[in-house]
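Practice problem: predict the structure.
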Amino acid sequence: MSAAAFFKRMLNADGALLALARLRPRSLLARLVAGLVCALAALAIRGALSAWYGGSTGFVVMLPGVLLAALAGGRLAGFVALAGCLAGGWVLGGRGA
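Answer:
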């Protein structure tokens, strides 16, 4: 597959999610890292957008990060991302976020 075809496929949301869902199971460490990376990315996006939306959405902004972690790394990565987003969300927005 050429580089152009690869990027064209990855820009297609359905193709990217399908490729992500078909990843082979990884090691325990890889799943933990996938969960942490997705949680940090979701927290960074929440922090960057907090000036725009205020505190009205709370944890909803971080849901795609948890879903992507679970899709890429399974239940363990999803639970790690969920815990990371909850802990980070409380730190960023206080317990009432």
